[in-house]
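Something for you to look into today, if you have time. Could you write out one complete protein record for me, on any chain you like? The space below this message is yours for that.
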Amino acid sequence: MAWLITLGLAAAVAVAQTWLKLVSREPQPGKKHALTIDDAVFWIDWTVTAVVALCGALIGASLDHKPIAASTVAVALGAIFLGMTVMPFGVRMICYNGSGVIRGWLYVVCADAFGLIVLMSSVAAGVEIYA
């Protein structure tokens, strides 16, 4: 059930961010909105959310003196390591061209999917910590 709530919250945050970007920017003359393809890149937000949530869960478990399986910590830290070190460089090398423009919608979807995997891994570890 936690994965479904996480997906719902991630989608709600994405919709809210897109809405705020839509209404807060003045469109260029002749355009209906000022949104760009880069406004659909959410993996960064989801990865940072995962790190903060997992750190909070680990600190809370420590304060409650709860035992945490080493495998749970290893998987969570592995996901965070990949999301905070490997993924940014991978996204830059694969999803963006040499002038810093994203290559297309497929690349946005792939980057967001990997960010969602990091978030889901963090949530799964947090749920296991408090189970």
